[in-house]
Amino acid sequence: MLEFEWPWLLLLLFAPLLIKPQKIVVSKPTKALRIPFFSQLEAAGLTREGSTQHKKSKLLQALKVIAWVSLVVAVSRPQYVGELIEVPISGRDLMLAVDISPSMKEEDMILRGYQVTRLDVVKSVVSDFVDQRKGDRVGLILFGTQPYIQSPLSFDTVTVNTLLQEAFLGMAGRATAIGDAITLAVKRLRDRPQNSRVLILLTDGANTAGEIQPIKAAQLAAKENIKIYTIGIGAEEMIQRGFLGSRTVNPSRDLDEKTLQEIADTTGGQFFRARNTAELELIYEGINRLEPIEQEVRSYRPTRSYFHWPLAVSFLALLGIILTKLVAPKLQTLTRKTEG
């Protein structure tokens, strides 16, 4: 919607009406009379051409009107005001740390009737969780041998989800650096408001790489008032078939539940165990209840100023007035001299 920032200035459009108009004297066109010294009189400014002067006067009047109207419109600051946009101002800061080490390719989970890898289940469940966190700043850390920021904290949950779906096994190395992942999250969260710092760490193994031990990293997080929810994922039983028959194995034998529990206890969070897709969904629903979304928002209407367009028109009209008054007569005189 087009509006004016200072609409009362539009009253200046009527200001020229307060000035007493000057009477324009236009000589009637007469029959041409050959005068030998006509060119000298014209050069001295002692002659007029009725019709030409009349057209010139009309043109100048039109240019003056255009220049004045455009100038008044420009100083009134025309601007386009967009639709109302709401921006959250007090959401939580949720950092998600997801293990993408090769062990996450274990196909011990069921999703929509199909046996899939652990990472496939994590992508599906975490994607729904992120979609529900409108108003929160959500970030994503992927870790293997090393952690890295896949997405910084952002209100753009669509992009966070896209980057999560693009993650693939082994892209961060073949080991598991839980301590380094927590330390990286601490660096990103410690400058955020104290009452909103939350890390949700998901893994299927134990710390096998990195420079910082998980418990030491958890202590650093606790000093920064960062709450950590830890999730251990992976089934406890799985049937493997071979040449000698089938046997039941525990695909989660490497999961370090004790350390994950201690990390959560140190930071005031909770440890969750997800043995299947349904349990993982319940865990994220539980975290949603533990960390409710804050709804305080600020609204605004985007504006775009367009004063430069009428200002440019006014400038061109003034330029036309100058050319008409100064340059055109000289060109006309020069043309006549050439013809004479």
UniProtKB/TrEMBL annotation:
Alphabetical list of PROSITE patterns matching this protein: VWFA
InterPro entries noted in UniProt: UPF0353/GerABKA_families (IPR050768), vWA_BatA_type (IPR033881), VWF_A (IPR002035), vWFA_dom_sf (IPR036465)
Gene3D superfamilies noted in UniProt: von Willebrand factor, type A domain
Keywords recorded for this protein, A-Z: Membrane, Transmembrane, Transmembrane helix
Domain VWFA, chain residue ranges per copy: 93-287
Membrane spanning stretches: 306-328
A Pfam family reported for this protein in Swiss-Prot or TrEMBL: VWA
PANTHER family membership: SPORE GERMINATION PROTEIN, VWFA DOMAIN-CONTAINING PROTEIN
Protein name (record): VWA domain-containing protein
Organism from which the protein derives: Alkalimarinus alittae
